[in-house]
Amino acid sequence: MNTEVFAARHIGITERDLPHMLETIGVENVEQLINETIPDDIKLKRPLDLPEGISEHEFLNHLQDLAKKNKVFKTYIGLGYHESLTPSVIKRNILENPGWYTAYTPYQAEIAQGRLEALLNFQTMVSDLTGMELANASLLDESTAAAEAMSMLFEVRSRQQKKGDVVKFFVSEEILPQTMSLLETRATPLGIELVLGNHEDFDFSDKFFGALLQYPGKHGQVNDYASFVEKAKAKEIKVAVAADILSLVMLTPPGEWGVDAVVGTTQRFGIPLGYGGPHAAFFATKEAYKRNIPGRIIGITKDTDGNPALRMALQTREQHIKRDKATSNICTAQVLLAVMAGMYAVYHGPEGLKYIAKKVHGQACTIASAVEKFGLKQLNTSFFDTLKIEVGDTSKIKQMAESSSINFNYVDDKTISISLNEATSNEDVIKLMKLFMLFTEHKEDTFIENAIGDGKIPSTLQRQAPFMQHQVFNSYHSETELMRYIKKLERKDLALNQSMISLGSCTMKLNAASEMLPLSWAEWGNIHPFVPVNQAEGYQEVLKSLEEQLNVITGFSATSLQPNSGAQGEYAGLMVIRAYHKSRGEEHRNICLIPASAHGTNPASAVMAGMKVVVTKTDDKGNIDMDDLTAKVEQHADNLAALMVTYPSTHGVFESSIKQITKLIHDNGGQVYMDGANMNAQVGLTNPATIGADVCHLNLHKTFAIPHGGGGPGVGPICVAEQLKPFLPSNPVIETGGENAITAISAAPWGSSLVCLISYGYIKMLGSEGLPKATEAAILNANYIKDRLKGKFDVLYTGERGRAAHEMIIDCRPFKTNGIEVTDIAKRLIDYGFHAPTVSFPVAGTLMIEPTESESRAELDRFCDALLAIREEIDEASAEETDNVLKNAPHTLGMLTNDSWSHPYSREKAAFPLPYVAENKFWPSIRRTDEAFGDRNLMCTCTPIEEYMEV
Ligand SMILES: *Cc1c(COP(=O)(O)O)cnc(C)c1O
């Protein structure tokens, strides 16, 4: 074995496994299987035009060379991004720990109590600091969170009044530029009219449904918005505030003014800048809007035994189910980053946060008083950490600053702003003051020692309310204690370092350590997204190369890395299509055809893009019903904007009529959007351009090895054909996007740049040969599982020649006659040490299994053995007798060691049903959660659990 070939480490099966696997499937070789799986007319005839793969060692050297091209300046740009210090204990035990970063979204609460608790901490911290009743478990970035707030307030208002009535939304001119750009993107398709202005001049006319304020303002001014909110309320204008989380430690929380939503980012709570992301945004609101909150909320409930348990609350309102009635398309959020930020709050506690906030504020005051003594004007009458200074001529100070490796924010020709942060040392403060002294040619540096200014927060805006008084925020302040707390939570969670997570449509493959390592390096972590591009040449090279790699893989002309999730990619792609039609004078095209089997984010994104969703039927083989599609295309031909099609389909099948379908759309003036979340079955073998699509998103957090993080981060780039290239999204601060670009989709110019390193490495290391090999192995593994389960579990859909693609749906509905539901199987798999496959998507009562190429034959066999053993247990079960091993699953250690045991099966059968289980037993920490109880008694912050259980 050549030990340098990365593909051999990434792909789980070996040559030795092939004969048995091929025999099971009933083919001579892999080529035959692929020929029987992928329709001939869409197969690529040539290898990918990419270099050969490189070894892990070579990749790390390569990234070290590139890292040197990034210049790490002291950056005081602010504008929503601040250098922060990731506590090493968090970096090592969470960011660098597969137990945390490879976990899946916590749908299976029984094996996810650790990250659910970490997220509850995050929500509690956000609720307390903002002064709001409820917070979600993160959103994508501050600007999208602000846009979600706008949509939510619009929706809430529209429910009371007829739509089209009150459509104006006031935005304070203090808003961050990237937020304004994103609001424009979101407002237009919804028919919302944005009005930018000074909050003091606002007339509170009854044409406004809402307003958005920034606190502190983009250049640091701290305003008292109490009377604004009061006047707005009197006119039924809802108010959202974008707030800086660290400032809220010292400032009156907006919740005290009675605002309706508070949003922002938690980046400065220990998350690296990463040239723009990923970071966890927060969204806090009132209890009254709990059913309108975008994203996920963690709530407290109880399990079968009545013990407290956590789970995702109000799951039924998730977008998967709401579809075209959805107001938000958020699916993947920023869980890993939220876990880290919440843990930062746990580690520092309220006293630690106060120290950090006071230090930053004190340094700002010191510099403010010095620059004033030097004769410069500091313009913020009240501030937290950001000064706005009139310097006369910015070009001169810019030159001086850059030669000292310092970045300021250059507001205009004569004004700069400086934002201080946790990482600013007293030496840095002195350096800054000296720079101003030299700049003003002031010669008395005694000012510097004496420059301690007074606090610059007026008494009405000084925070009085205590925060984070819960035990969790006041217990783990030593490293040993926090390390053990993190471990305690980690042990409750099943991640990829325990066993296969065969989630159909989610592609839980290896996230290689070599892909992950560079994320910890300062040259990648510590770059602000708005530095001049010549300070980020290493990043520019990686991002450009990744765009080119993805162009080659998709067969398209251009890529935008901006969208922070698959759903954001969908939205971006549809907005680009919209802009394209508009540029051709065909603005009226607004019909979006979507097959019934599509992922729930598809219709949600289409609605957000201002399109009308028309659902088309699927036939009994799981394919698009051509007759129905043709009829609907003809019916809507004049207004057809797009078809959204998932390929291979959500049913795990390569439809052979795909080219006919895309042609039909083009012939009728529409564009074809391909949902590329399932790209794992295509890479190197076929591609979206070949099937006739015009744009697709890819989920880099599925196919391209970015870890799932427990529900984020994600990167959902869009790749487009030539005609759509001019419309790729822009950023208002740093130039990016097409020549006729739409406004921003994400806050940062290249979205979550830091984790793009992972996908870049994945493609670079696998190379032109390894990529198609990985795809073949993914298809082989899926078909192997399918044929091992044959006769015991029916696969719902297959291709024309009886093959699955990279995933398959097994039907669990027939077991109802034995009283067994699909959930029982999902929970029983936990007893066997496995995470359930995707439950009831896209078909209720089924499991969708996707093994990926990274699993070994031994693991595939264990998984099949478990399912086959469960199949026998199903046969033993009956609808009349519900005290059985499936209905009672999962079995906890507490249940099994209880002195009384009254069940008709043995404890051994419950806990150790197969020999392999005993060797590596995973114990769930709770029994099944009671969903209905939790939704009835919604509780989403860390209130003492005992108190709550008495309800
Ligand atoms: C995962 C997925 C999405 C949504 O991606 P997010 O990153 O979670 O927003 C969309 N479509 C399909 C088919 C998917 O599997």
UniProtKB/TrEMBL annotation:
Residues 774-891 form the Glycine dehydrogenase C-terminal domain. The modification N6-(pyridoxal phosphate)lysine is found at K702. Coiled coil: none annotated. The lineage of its organism: Bacteria, Pseudomonadati, Bacteroidota, Flavobacteriia, Flavobacteriales. Residues 9-436, 456-729 form the Glycine cleavage system P-protein N-terminal domain. One of its GO terms (molecular function) is glycine binding. One of its GO terms (cellular component) is cytosol. It comes from Flagellimonas lutimaris. This is Glycine dehydrogenase (decarboxylating). Belongs to the GcvP family.
